[in-house]
Amino acid sequence: MDKNYEFSIEQSTSEDRDCVDDKIVGFNSIQVPFTQSEKFIRIDYVIKNNGIIIAGINSLLYCWKCLYIDVLWVDDQFRHQGLGSQLLHRVEDEARNLGCKLAHLDTFDFQGKDFYLKNGYEIFGTLKDCPPGHTRYYLNKKL
User: Fold this and answer.
1) Does residue 8 belong to any structural domain of this protein?
2) Whether 110 contacts 136, CB under 8 Å
3) CA separation (Å) from 59 to 2, 6, 44, 86, 132?
4) pLDDT one-digit tens code per residue, 86-97
5) Which of 15, 81, 121, 128 is the most buried (most CB within 10 A)?
6) What is the count of structural domains for the chain?
């Protein structure tokens, strides 16, 4: 049985990316059944001062009630006032209320490593020279 295939590598469109994402999500759900009914739940907050965003957190509760903190940012002039901790705790509490037991994230040596350590996260991995001369840290926390 001879099959004639004609392969090509092409730049992905947004529809192509969505298809690839859907395929891996489908594969994953067969390997380890999801423990939440909605596969992905965004948990995002901002803090505003006079209508202007001065801090924010973007996170995702995914598939198995795992929380991934994607971005936490506080404007320079508002740092060290507890805003980042308020946002982080708000997201962790919401995730906990949805049954989450584990949070994880990554950060760089020039970002918030010490902040996350102070908030109960532990380093479980590093990637040196990413970017060159710096280290990327991978952290987790049991909720």
Assistant:
1) no
2) no
3) 48, 40, 6, 14, 27
4) 999 999 999 999
5) 121
6) 1
